[in-house]
Amino acid sequence: MRRAGTTRSTLPTVAVLICLLAACGGAAQDPSASGDASPLAAGPLVVSAIPDQDPQELQRLHGSVAGYLEQRLDVPVEYVPVTDYNAAVSLFRTGDLDLVWFGGLTGVQARLQTPGAQVIAQRDIDAEFHSVFIVNASTGLDPGDDVEDLDALRGLRFTFGSESSTSGRLMPQYFLDQAGVAEGDLAGAPGFSGSHDKTIDLVESGSFEAGVLNEQVWTSRVAAGDVDQDRVKLFLRTPGYHDYHWILGPSAAERYGEDFPDAVRAALLDLSPDDEQGAQVLDLFGAESFIPAEASDYDQIEQVARDLGLVR
User: Fold this and answer.
1) What is the residue range of 194's domain?
2) Taking the mean position of all CA atoms in its chain, how far away is CA 59?
3) Is residue 275 part of a domain?
4) Distances (CA, A) of 80 to 54, 66, 87, 250
5) CATH number of the domain that 229 lies in?
6) pLDDT at residue number 91
7) Distance (Å, rounded) from C-alpha 142 to C-alpha 241?
């Protein structure tokens, strides 16, 4: 009887100990309960970009920078492609994308819609970026030297790139306006190819007699031998303007710490052509370096966009 009594009296104590151990174990395994702010617990830093080029090219480009940032920042980094320019802005606004390579116009739109978003950096070439107007050889047009020469495009079938592209629509339309060429002066409504690569293809094929695109894409396609220059010609290089840049969303600092934006900026500015990995990333971006950028760099873009009714 004594033995049985001892056994019964210890059962409650054992049960309490088991419950306490289970509770402690559960708390240790739950990052939120323990206050664990590790990079893994914060989830991946999601990188994306406006889809202005071939998807495979974008995967190579931004996959490389994602790998570099993951190593440099010691956080998981994931590149997620988007379907169109508007999706990049919308998903950035909702916090589904953290660090996005925007053009000038989409960057302005993203910042206006996302309080707390920060301009992080731009390439050296983005401080003085250019668009190029191209024409089908059948037009017989000689290259122009000045924006006023865009007057020669009157009456031609013309295509922009994406409707939200800075170098493929916004600034080219601004320069056309400066030359006194309105949409009604073209042969029918202008087209929107959707990407710089497609603009070249459409003008080269004769589907459109003229078009405009990002100078960097034109130069790289020509250098690769992917342009038949007997069929499509460079007509005019525009004056320079600020364009592409990285923007970081506010939730990144909330998840990784208030110093995280500075760490991202430093990582991008430290890319060097003298380093093997840095040289690879910079080569894919067509740049010698990334340089500091500020929201005020895009004041001209914002004003043109307001004048054209593309932002409010």
Assistant:
1) 130-237
2) 12
3) yes
4) 15, 10, 12, 18
5) 3.40.190.10
6) 98
7) 25
Does 250 reside within a domain? yes
Residue 198 lies in a domain: yes
pLDDT band at residue 36 using 50, 70 and 90 as cut-offs: very low
Query: What one-letter code names the amino acid at 69?
Result: L
Residue 42 banded pLDDT, cuts 50, 70, 90: confident
Count of residues for the chain? 312
**End-to-end distance of the chain based on CA atoms, in angstroms?**
87
Write out pLDDT tens, residues 130-173: 999 999 999 999 999 999 999 999 999 999 999 999 999 999 99
Using the 3D structure, point to which of 212, 237, 262 is the last residue of a domain.
237
Interatomic CA distance for residues 114 and 68, integer angstroms: 26
In a domain, 273, yes or no: yes
Dump the DSSP string for 56-97: HHHHHHHHHHHHHHHHHHTS-EEE---SSHHHHHHHHHTTS-
Give the residue from 84, 81, 89 showing the smallest Cα distance to 106.
Answer: 89
CA angle 210-215-220, nearest 5°? 105
pTM over 0.85: no
135/224 same-domain check: yes
Residue 237: which of 141, 146, 119, 156 has the closest Cα? 146
For the residues 166-194, what does the mean pLDDT come to?
Answer: 96
Q: What is the pLDDT of residue 52?
A: 86
CA distance 212 to 194: 12
Choose one of 237, 257, 281: the last residue of a domain: 237
Q: Which residue has the tokens 């379907």?
A: 83
Nearest 5 degrees, angle CA 38-CA 41-CA 42?
Answer: 90
Burial of 99 (0-12, 13-18, 19+ CB in 10 A): buried
pLDDT digits (tens, 9 = 90+) for 257-304: 999 999 999 999 999 999 999 999 999 999 999 999 999 999 999 999
pLDDT of residue 40: 60
